[in-house]
What does this fold into?
Amino acid sequence: MLTLIARDLRANFRTGSGIWLPLTMFLTIVVLIPIGIGPDVDLHATIAPAILWIGVVFSVFLFLDRIFSPDLEDGFLDRIAASDLPLEKYVWCKIIVLWISSGLLLTILTPFLGLFLNLPLPVGLMCSSSILAGSPALAAIGCLGGGIGTFNRHGNLLQTVIVLPLSIPILIFGTKSVIAYSNGEPYLTWILQLSGISLASIAIFPFLISYALKTVLEE
Amino acid sequence: MPDLGAYSFFVLSSYGMAILVLLGLCILTVSQYRSAKRKLAKLNEN
Amino acid sequence: MTTRFWKFANPHHFGKLVVASTPFLWSFSFLFVATGLLWGFLFTPDDFRQGSTVKIIFVHVPSTLMAINCWLMMLLSSIIWMVRRHRISILAAKAAAPVGLSFTLVALISGGLWGQPMWGTFWAWDPRLTSFLILFLHYITYQLIWIYIADRESAANISSLVCLVGSVFALLSRYAVNLWSQGLHQGATLSLDQETNIHNAYYLPLIICIVGFVLLFITLVLVRTRTEIIRNQIELMEKSRRKHNA
It folds into this structure.
């Protein structure tokens, strides 16, 4: 399993785009929205958690079509399905790789970009920890979209519409935790619920995704 | 016709919209059913 | 009882049931919907605060109820498909999706038309409204899967998967938006404890409307499922004929 994760991570690093593209996307959103709003600093601080979170959602979902389709094209997926390695484990590795190369990197970047948005450092750290808690669930959802999206030429549309409604509760919990923290309300429950969703997602989604992939392989 | 007062637009349009959508769905359903049945009958003939 | 129910998993028995029952179902659902809506529209008094807009309730509440119940029915059929592999079950879910989508649309639009005069806005990001919008998105996703996955077997598998995951996440979002501050929307209109119920003058036509919408839903789903079965048959026949010719 570790070799699988290492293999995919190395592929992501080698091509470069695998890790730079999510970062660039994140940066683009964080820079463009304040520019679009104008120099209203207080407004920036109010909507900063939402901007950062939406940036994370977009960057995680940036290239879902590249998760499974290379393996499907070069026959690696068929070999995995034929070998004794359970498909679920392979899918789990894919989720972890997607999470490391988008969610984890963005978590590290968030407090610094929060400063751009006039977000005090403690709130920025809070925002990054909520992203740390929530992004595994986003990665799992993204892999589900990617798995179903490998179907046909409409795959891109399908994965977008699948991923959109599923990411809503994550976004609500994530932004709510940051806003509760900056308002001085109890915030720990939100973070805990978010991590609960994430843990449940990375535990359950591999089974669902491999169900979808088996359907793809049978077709 | 009851007197709807100032709100007549909202009441009438919500009723009209609902009837339009549901009636449209009914007509669509029946026409799809009929065309499928016709096609099956044609296939059975050949 | 159970064996009698599963008998209708046989397309032949199901077809006979549909053919025998649709005339009654159509007439009764139209009768109830027409009676309820006309009674609600013509013979109910205005509310002392809401004026005549209270009449929108006869469109809004039944469609909202059916939008949610339709999703539950789709979830149930998807689970039956995943567990027992009855083809009619998943075809019924497929058939119900456009019906549920229409009910959701009716509920959203009639809610907006009620909200504009009462709250001064067509739309508010209130918990109830938001979760209904999320339900609408889930319906669209489900519908698009059936449209864009051509192979019937895979579409059945994927759509039931999405329905299952979507239900869990729709519940999660419902829970999440509920923790926003209480919005503009009032609480439950109908409940079993009489204390909070609406006035009798509205109660009876509303119940008639709800019964009518339920009947209409059943009718539409039965006929649409039958259509899907026939389409399945057509596809199979065409496939075998092509093989025969080649």
User: Anything to note?
Assistant: Chain B has a mean pLDDT of 88.
